[in-house]
């Protein structure tokens, strides 16, 4: 069971890629977003809820397995954050890429209250919630940009 938890928590191993595992996890969300839009366009939010639940459980278990707080190899939190960023994005890969860069900005710099959540909430919920909030911030910025460009 530990192997399954680690496989999911590490984004099917992308968290083990060299340098910037969070970036790799965020990139993993792009094809996942594409497939969710194709396979379940009317159920995207429901899929996000399921992924959130799985992310909290697997991230918490990975933390216990590795005996480290918020281990860098855990990237399922970046996946859910990116999917939140893109939930309302137009079907345009360039805008998805822009969403990726916006999300990475918020995930790395952690403006208030993201850093506070990162520091105060422990376990799987703490690992995931700061990225969820970074995803919400990124969603808002991306939507403002889309509105300015598309109208």
TrEMBL record:
Say yes or no: keyword DNA damage present: no
A GO molecular function annotation here is: phosphatidylglycerophosphatase activity
Q: Which UniProt keywords apply?
A: Membrane, Transmembrane, Transmembrane helix
Claim: Transmembrane helix is one of the keywords in the record: yes
The record, for InterPro entries, names: PgpA, PgpA-like_sf, YutG/PgpA
Domain called YutG/PgpA: residue spans: 7-145
Superkingdom per UniProt:
Bacteria
PANTHER family named in the record: PHOSPHATIDYLGLYCEROPHOSPHATASE A
List the GO biological process terms. lipid metabolic process
One Pfam annotation reads PgpA
Q: What is this protein called?
A: Phosphatidylglycerophosphatase A
């Amino acid at each position: 069971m530990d192997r399954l938890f680690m496989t999911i928590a590490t984004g099917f191993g992308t968290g083990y890629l060299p340098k910037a595992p969070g970036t790799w996890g965020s990139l993993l969300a792009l094809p996942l977003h594409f497939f969710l839009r194709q396979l379940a366009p009317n159920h995207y939010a429901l899929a996000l809820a399921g992924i959130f639940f799985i992310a909290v459980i697997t991230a918490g278990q990975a933390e216990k397995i590795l005996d480290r707080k918020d281990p860098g190899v855990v990237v399922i939190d970046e996946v859910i954050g990116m999917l939140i960023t893109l939930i309302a994005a137009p079907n345009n890969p360039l805008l998805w890429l822009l969403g990726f860069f916006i999300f990475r900005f918020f995930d790395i710099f952690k403006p208030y209250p993201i850093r506070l959540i990162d520091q105060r909430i422990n376990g799987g919920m703490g690992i995931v919630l700061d990225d969820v909030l970074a995803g919400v911030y990124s969603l808002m910025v991306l939507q403002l940009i889309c509105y300015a460009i598309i109208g």
